[in-house]
Amino acid sequence: MGLSPSKTMLTVDPAVFAMAAQPQQGTAPVWVQFLPFALILAIFYFIILLPMRRRQKKVQEFRDELKVGDKIITTSGMYGSITKLNDRSVQLQVADKVRIEVSRAAIGGYQGQEPVVQDAGAM
User: Fold this and answer.
1) How many folded domains does the chain comprise?
2) Which of 9, 35, 59, 81 shows the greatest Cβ crowding within 10 Å of its Cβ?
3) What confidence score (pLDDT) does residue 123 get?
4) Distance between CA 79 and CA 47 in Å, rounded?
């Protein structure tokens, strides 16, 4: 029951190889396939990242401009007047002879004005 060599060989038409080697006429260049992905990234940047960077820059400028005597409100709703500034914290006078120390990140804005720092629930 052995097979002879002539029966086991497959014959392939050379035209099949010629068609496989030629580029197809209907395909687009590779960069065109990445165009929708790049467009989505651009939209994401302009709608989400750019406004977020602007807001962070505004908050950072506000915190850098704080000075002694400013009347502020914290993000937790405490009103006070700045009596001392450090790199990371601020000392507030909240009542006569009552001073507390809070983080600079806890300062939300000036009293009587719109808050500079948006609370996390507003997003």
Assistant:
1) 2
2) 59
3) 47
4) 34
- Three-state SS string over 94-114 comes to EECCEEEEEEHHHEEEECCCC
Find, among 32, 102, 99, 93, the residue nearest to 63 by Cα. 102
CATH of the domain at 89: 2.30.30.100
Q: Is the pLDDT of residue 23 over 60?
A: no
Nearest to 90 by CA among 114, 113, 62, 118: 62
β-bridge mates for residue 110, sequence order: 72
Of 30 and 119, the one with more pLDDT: 30
Tell me if 50 is assigned to some domain: yes
Over residues 24-74, the pLDDT tens digits come to 566 778 888 899 999 999 999 999 999 999 999 999 999 999 999 999 999
Distance CA 72, CA 102 (A): 12
